[in-house]
């Protein structure tokens, strides 16, 4: 059933909205704390405090590897590669994106971020393998 892949796709979209809210709240807080003025960001956002910049960077990340995830999900549905293994990989990818956000906007440990990022890429790669197997 294709809904096994639709649910994690919807969860990933929802997570992008969550990160957008985190970014908005951190930017709003920067203005409220008078850490930044409107003129400071008229040309560039690099004057935001680190916490707001990390949230913005993570929001941008939601449109990088997740693009591959959405493409793989759609292709998997199209070719009928919608079994439990593919669904588990899709959910695992979403979990890695959530973990990546929590690390990126929290401790920002590059070591932990890299490990979680690599795990997400592995999920995408194995989803691709599953699609190739389904096609063959």
Give structural notes.
This protein is mostly helical and 136 residues long. The protein contains five helices and no strands. Helix 1 (3-32) runs antiparallel to helix 2 (50-61), helix 1 (3-32) runs parallel beside helix 4 (84-104) and helix 3 packs parallel to helix 5. The protein is elongated and about 60 Å long. The relative contact order is 0.16.
Keywords:
mainly alpha, 5 helices
SSE layout and pairings?
Layout: H1 3-32, H2 50-61, H3 65-79, H4 84-104, H5 110-135
Helix pairs in contact: 1-2, 1-3, 1-4, 3-4, 3-5, 4-5
Distance between the termini: 20 Å
Number of helices: 5
What's the overall average pLDDT, rounded?
A: 95
Structural class designation: mainly alpha
For the report, how would you describe the main beta sheet?
none
- C-alpha Rg (nearest Å): 17 Å
Q: Give the overall shape, derived from the CA principal axes.
A: elongated
Residue stretches low in confidence (pLDDT < 50, at least 5 long) are none
Give helix and strand order, one letter per element, not per position: HHHHH
Instruction: Tell me the β content.
Output: under 5%
Helix content percent band = over 70%
Nutshell version of this structure?
The protein has 136 residues and is mainly alpha-helical. The protein has helices at 3-32, 50-61, 65-79, 84-104, 110-135.
